[in-house]
Amino acid sequence: MAVTEETLVHTRNSHVAAISRTIHVIIFNIPLKRRVYGLILQADMTVVPYKDKQGSKKQQVASMFDNISGKYDFLNHFLSLGIDILWRKKAIRQLKKDHPKQILDIATGTGDFAIEALALNPDKVTGVDISEGMLAVGREKMKRKGMDDRIELLSGDSEALQFEDNKFDAVIVSFGVRNFENLEKGLADMQRVIRPGGKVVILEFSKPKSFPFKQLYNFYFKWVLPKIGNTISKDQAAYTYLPESVRQFPDGESFLQILEKVGFKNTQCKPLTLGISSIYIGTK
Ligand SMILES: C[S@@+](CC[C@H](N)C(=O)[O-])C[C@H]1O[C@@H](n2cnc3c(N)ncnc32)[C@H](O)[C@@H]1O
């Protein structure tokens, strides 16, 4: 074949096109792959308090709460301007018509939710937690308030509860489920120990959605709260873990779907304070 000016131009053009295609692929596909890979990583990633330390999420969470137990109550009320107290009261009111006599408070910590549950006039509130430090502060508080005959605080793991099936009229959890290592396992075991017809009431942080409150709140939650919390608690990770764990945690409809998956019926979500927290309710 004779090499004409026309074929030379054509060959040069197809080389240029091939090179430009390669550059296009490099520029656009690599970041895309990274994005997809990042999403896969994110889906697998468990948020733990101490990223540079060994140990399961459960071990890390227990040791984090042991560390901050002395300052936990103060920081809770200070950082939420006391609104956490109103949220707990409102969550407990969801059980008013049920008159539960045996109540289990999971992830009871220093026992504030268990104390609020006394408003329902139960025979007994049992609280369980994996942090001995939080339980010690809680037991001291119950003694001081003369409530230790009606509230019992025990060491216990939400994912392997030490109680028989169908024991409790109601199971309650405030700001605990987000910290579970295995959320579904924890919720399923809670469902197991509730009697048929009994209720679960869960209070947990959620994510505000409306502009501009969402932006203002996110600024406070991500930048201001960790600085104050970490300084006062003297734990460099606890109050950084808080917004990170909330960001990654399912809220609203997604959380209700998980409750239903483990067997709860008539599930409801009641957002509080423009969606900063939500109350979730389900029936066994
Ligand atoms: C943010 S505190 C909430 C304490 C209390 N309910 C309140 O409203 O103040 C979370 C608690 O969950 C506990 N926790 C985390 N995982 C748990 C598990 N698998 N079983 C029992 N308690 C758990 C922690 O030890 C911690 O005391």
From TrEMBL:
Q: Does the keyword S-adenosyl-L-methionine apply?
A: yes
Catalysed reaction, written as an equation: a 2-demethylmenaquinol + S-adenosyl-L-methionine = a menaquinol + S-adenosyl-L-homocysteine + H(+)
**Which keywords fit this entry according to its UniProt record?**
Menaquinone biosynthesis, Methyltransferase, S-adenosyl-L-methionine, Transferase
Q: Which Pfam families match?
A: Ubie_methyltran (PF01209)
* Gene Ontology molecular function: any one: demethylmenaquinone methyltransferase activity
Q: What is its EC number?
A: 2.1.1.163
Q: Which residues form a coiled coil?
A: none
Q: Which GO terms describe its biological process?
A: menaquinone biosynthetic process; methylation
Please list the residues that bind S-adenosyl-L-methionine. T110, D129, D157, S158, S174
**EC category name:** transferase
Top-level taxon? Bacteria
Would the keyword Transferase turn up in this protein's UniProt record? Answer: yes
Give the pathway listed in the UniProt entry for this protein. Answer: Quinol/quinone metabolism; menaquinone biosynthesis; menaquinol from 1,4-dihydroxy-2-naphthoate: step 2/2
Which PANTHER family does the UniProt entry name for this protein? Answer: 2-METHOXY-6-POLYPRENYL-1,4-BENZOQUINOL METHYLASE, MITOCHONDRIAL, METHYLTRANSFERASE
Tell me, in a sentence or two, what this protein's role is. Methyltransferase required for the conversion of demethylmenaquinol (DMKH2) to menaquinol (MKH2).
Annotated family: Belongs to the class I-like SAM-binding methyltransferase superfamily. MenG/UbiE family.
Q: List the HAMAP family hit by this protein, alphabetically.
A: MenG_UbiE_methyltr (MF_01813)
Q: What is this protein called?
A: Demethylmenaquinone methyltransferase
* Provenance organism: Marinoscillum furvescens DSM 4134
Per the UniProt record, the lineage of the source organism begins with: Bacteria, Pseudomonadati, Bacteroidota, Cytophagia, Cytophagales
- Gene behind the chain: menG
